[in-house]
Write a structure and sequence with these properties.
CATH architecture of the largest domain in chain A: 3-Layer(aba) Sandwich
CATH topology of the largest domain in chain A: Aspartate Aminotransferase, domain 2
Radius of gyration of chain A: 20 Å
Shape of chain A: globular
Oligomer: homotetramer
Strand content of chain A: 15-25%
């Protein structure tokens, strides 16, 4: 079998997680996240984030997490500002609208939006004499790392949060790929530095070493009230909730190599493998589409290159670039091996 | 640790499932249920149900399955008829209403409703000159086995389906505990005989041997169109969908003892253990609350009995019975051992 | 044509309203309720209610008012406690559920619920260890006068409000028939005394002399924020909003006979005509169903009586009473004449 | 008072409508649109549209009509394709999203979209291997005349309908300003020719001579089933429904001048007055923004012009054009007089 680079959720989980699930299999625990593993995992996350007062909740997947968080925060007539490549606006089959809310996209650059764009959108809304005829921006959603693999700097994030807080609306960060962002050589924040900025964010497990699972961290006490009702109502409360606790216990423990949290160690491997792919592509004269410093590499490929890659590895068609060329995506993960990367690179 | 009988989802999964997850952990598969394990599991289910043309979809949990199925079927002005102890009306935090639909409860007897109750409700609605001012019944929801552990007979189910079909509305069966029902000594149907009756039902995995997972079986081609959009929109499409496929492959394979499907073998153990508890209770002069022939036993317990049980086992408070007595629930599962039951019974 | 007593919205509007609409027809005013008539009408209502700080908004009809108010207040996982004959639960085609919320009916007596029932429902919810699996009561809805024409006393209303406020949830009164209640000989409150009690209520125009229109009065500043967005989103913001202002200007001006507000004078006529019908029925030995002191009279009628009435007047079938008898409803309105009542009574 | 050109709903109703309301005021009629006036008005509309089999329903306002129609048609995972200046996407406070559906805007030219744009959007969706992760286009919404006053030709409309029908989705036309479109000198269709094309459309009354009211015409039998439930659920069923019937009876009767339907005669006046304004502007060297042939005129105005107009007439700021100039909107209506236009033009 040729190695696949379609996405970052092609494999199961890091072996230590499989082992932990097996080891705890016959424990009898209460359901719905009220077990000791969830409590312990939440403590580990609070500690890693240096947010001793934060609420931590575990949900199963990203779309349901976004739908649950956003609909729990917004008033019916409010919408959510985001980048025009934000996952909630494009790849969630209208889950946000299903919950009653409009997604309010802003034009992005490299997958990112800026504090001043948000400030302008808020200003335009509130100064419009017909504002009640339009959807009121009620929160801001950004992704870190973004859907294009790019990163906000600490200053950019702080500026966005400042605009939000001046307007009295929360900042929510989708961290489906949070680890890949934090582990990147180009990231200028630690997890704790990052965690201090948003009102609410989630730490993605599904794409970063777990079988599934996202940990929502709420660092604004006004947002957390009754959040468990929202989880249940959105069908996001796992009966055997301990499965989430056990997985995040593993991810937020020291890695075997004692180099820090397993979560970041796994992401670091993915980023490093992606960097090798990127370097090899550049060395071979292949143009990048965007310049992601994380685990997704976007190449501009002509037909010959696509065929050469296809012969040795799986890649994802992203979009048309021009008549002769496509943009293709190559994703690495915690599980990507040197051998797999070597096989891929041989096609360049 | 004393054995717990709180619910039927206290443990992880049957060891063969854990093993299958571990064995397949490094396979690279497409996401979202489009992998070979899901395809294979769906085939096994179609075969076991003798429904070669049915659609089979895998979701994560029961509340999300109910919300997804019901909102995918109903028109905005329609509601769902069910028993007044139906799970959707009581223990899903209004997930059905969150999707826009009213739950229309009918008074139940032993957790069950009848074809004639449904026929009457439909007749009352459609003969009401103000019908457009009221919610139109658009489908029927029942549980098998019911929330009180009871069973519909084949004739009862067929009569309900006949009323539904005469009215042009589908019958949906919540099978969170389908196996416990079918494996009961008092059940007069095989899986295939059951499966032929509803338009749509789900086979519960979470409470019956899996880590999680519910398999929706659609036996009415008008209901299946675009169902995957509904799954995704409801946040119910697992990224690593193969986890569901792998688990149902195990459950719908022959059990090690070659006595039939693992799914039914596991349920059979739970039912047998529950029968022992019930027999011991009756022998000890303890009154039953209802007469469940499946894996849930409801006892009418005075304070002394509660204390004796509490000393040796975990039980669930169900409701007050009178000033001196409570109804308590004891659940067995695929994992309930002879030793656990013996410990519990010693308190009677 | 025989006179009709089907409902209290059989005619157009009080002639002074038609005249006001004609007189103002060529005025050019801003839309959406931002005109001088709406401002003036709101002032008149604030004055009549002795609520100088209240917000007043004008909507078109009752169902849309209930849907707008309730969905603007509740969190997604909250429902609304009400009587089991509450209009929102029965005759609004699931408009509340369409907005995402469950209606939580309590058993009523004469159409009314009590403070202690509400307190118990709240206590049961919040003491339930599984509360997050159930819908959280987030507000209370009652009708004044009720759907059966009955009245809460001032003490009953105050007790309900006290329970609500202790629990931190608002009390909302549906005043589709508020005038008929306040004008009743049995009512122990003035409009201002009534208005001081709920957090939010509406003053019904449609059934009480206007062509259409309901005035929402918000006496709790936390509920009014951004309410105009909610009105617009629910399709309840009339483009030519001045039509509502003009009508409520008329209703909340002195009546021609200088006996107080036209609104109450019109309701007083209806109540007086209903009292005559009730007295005549009792004198003729006809049993009442309930004992409404407002504009709806419910009689228990055998077939012969129904036929006699049908020969001279229109009535509404309400429900079956027993094999031989039905409950029928007779409604009066601002427009009911002595002649019409005399014709009806002749049948008794 | 200077004449106002803010919008086309500044006045009440055509005097014949006020008279009809007064004349019928004391009739007693059934509620909710089941009266003889509504039946008669529906017949007049069917006749005028030459659609003998069409269903006709009367609602109160445009936003509620759009929300009711769209949510009654779409499946939960479907959205509505429209122009990026479509009213539903911009000026309805997210009413469509409140009903659970995403608005899918296409870039417009002069407020219009084309059949080939729609075909491309459909093709892109259905050929996307990830289509189930995105919102499925389930209907097309266009406005006639458009929000910018422009018109589709008969061929353009037919081409759009053909694309829709090939894809199996309905075409819905928002006719808030339908009369202004049909009465335009540049329109190449009669009402009946227009009416034959869409699956469903509405005839706007609010902006075209009525106090309020929109008539939904359903020319596709699969869409009409149970539509009255949808009307009621959306709070759009007027209790005194005859008010809508009476108004549309007037609008769809011969005008006093016997020149055809009053509805079109009134729109014709508005269009003619707008044409005079446009001609005067061009004669004065003022640039148009777009070239609306209907009742809305958009001018590019420098500050001096704005001040001159403001001195003699009311106008609406539309948007900034450049640093020195704004786009302003001038609306005419059935009630716009020669004197008002003369006053306005004097400023040019």
């Amino acid at each position: 079998m040729k190695p696949l680079f379609y996405s970052d959720y092609l494999e199961g989980a890091h072996p230590s997680i499989i082992k932990a699930l097996a080891d705890t299999n016959f424990e009898q625990t209460p359901g719905y996240g009220e077990d000791a593993h969830c409590a312990h995992a939440a403590d580990l996350i609070r500690k890693a984030c240096n947010l001793p007062g934060a609420e931590v909740h575990f949900l199963v997947g990203g779309t349901q997490t976004n739908a649950t968080v956003i609909s729990s925060i917004l008033k019916p007539w409010q919408g959510v500002l985001c980048s025009d490549c934000g996952h909630i606006g494009i790849h969630e089959t209208g889950a946000i609208e299903h919950g009653g809310h409009k997604v309010l996209p802003l034009p992005s650059k490299n997958g990112k939006i800026t504090a001043s764009q948000i400030a302008l959108a808020l200003e335009l809304h509130h100064s419009d004499p017909s504002s009640v005829h339009t959807v009121q921006p009620g929160m801001v959603y950004i992704s870190f790392s973004t859907e294009l693999g790019t990163l906000y700097t600490k200053d950019e994030l702080k500026a966005i949060a400042a605009v939000c807080h001046e307007a009295g609306i929360p900042l929510y960060v989708d961290g489906a790929r949070l680890g890949y962002g934090l582990a990147s050589a180009e990231c200028d924040m630690t997890l704790a530095e990052f965690a201090a900025i948003p009102d609410i964010f989630y730490i993605g497990g599904t794409k970063q070493g777990a079988l599934f699972g996202e940990a929502v961290v709420i660092n604004n006490p006004t947002l957390g009230k009754d959040f468990r009702y929202a989880i249940k109502q959105n069908g996001a409360m796992l009966a055997k909730g301990r499965l989430l606790g056990i997985q995040f216990e593993s991810l937020f423990s020291e890695s075997e190599e004692k180099t820090g949290l397993l979560y970041l160690a796994l992401a670091g491997n993915a980023d490093a493998q992606a960097a090798k792919i990127k370097a090899a592509a550049l060395a071979a004269g292949i143009a990048l589409f965007g310049d992601s410093p994380t685990n997704q590499v976007f190449l501009i490929a002509d037909r010959a290159l696509e065929e050469r890659i296809d012969a040795v590895a799986g890649y994802e068609f992203w979009q048309k670039y021009d008549e002769e060329r496509n943009v293709i995506r190559l994703c690495t993960s915690w599980a990507t091996s040197d051998e797999a990367v070597a096989a891929l690179i041989s096609a360049f």
